[in-house]
Amino acid sequence: MARIQTVFKNFLNNFLDPSGKDLLSLPEKIKKDLSISLAEDEEIVISMKTDRAIYRAGLSKDSNSFYKSFAILTTKRLILAKDSTSLKIFREFQLNQVNSLLYEEIAGKPTIHLDNVNSKYVLSMPPGSFDEAKKFFDLLNTALEPEKSGKNFCSKCGNKIQSNSVYCSNCGTKI
Ligand SMILES: [Zn+2]
């Protein structure tokens, strides 16, 4: 039975990712390099290979795209790293900088939107990788919980809401 499950899992992984690699596994070398840079009370929670990660600074219309990079969630940070034989960080930020978090599906691609005080990130996951992306999103959402306590996030658009607000300042939904 276990073997059948393994075969089925491999089949699914191959189906989801033509390269045949598990989207949620981080290459050993990257993991090893990263473990050295972790703070004492910091751990890797989950990682996922993205199709495309987009970073936009502040009000700038220019954006940077990182293709096939890894999104790595630790207990403190979100890191975008190059798919490489060693750890090469494109971008990273502390989880306590996150203002809003949203999950949606765009043209068959699970997509995660993260807004910070002065930047925006869009993580476009590989087509069809709904199970993996949902798992990644759920853990990201959970990792943000300590940051969220004391703040409220709009249930419709994910915008951060001041504790005394009645309506969301972004989309107008009643809290
Ligand atoms: Zn809203």
Describe it.
By secondary structure, the protein is of the alpha+beta class. The chain has two domains: 22-143, Pleckstrin-homology domain (PH domain)/Phosphotyrosine-binding domain (PTB) (PH-domain like, Roll), CATH 2.30.29; 149-175. The chain has helices spanning 2-16, 28-37, 130-143, 145-148; strands at residues 44-49, 52-57, 63-67, 70-74, 77-81, 89-94, 98-106, 109-116, 119-124, 152-153, 160-161. The chain is globular. 25% of the residues are buried. The protein binds zinc ion. Zinc ion binds at residues 154, 156-157, 159, 168, 170-171, 173.
- Strand line-up of the largest beta sheet: 3-2-9-8-7
* CATH level 4 superfamily of the largest domain: Pleckstrin-homology domain (PH domain)/Phosphotyrosine-binding domain (PTB)
What small molecules accompany the polymer chains? zinc ion
Largest sheet: 5 strands, antiparallel
Structural class assignment: alpha+beta
Radius of gyration: 17 Å
Measured by DSSP, the beta-strand proportion falls in 25-35%
Question: Would you give the CATH topology of the largest domain?
Answer: PH-domain like
Our count of helices gives: 4
Which architecture name of the largest domain does CATH use?
Roll
Number of domains: 2
Task: Report the order of strands and helices.
Answer: HHEEEEEEEEEHHEE
> What is the mean predicted local confidence, pLDDT?
86
State the helicity in percent bands. Answer: 10-25%
- Number-wise, the strands total 11
Rough shape? Answer: globular
Distance between the termini: 49 Å
Poorly predicted spans: none
CATH class of the largest domain: Mainly Beta
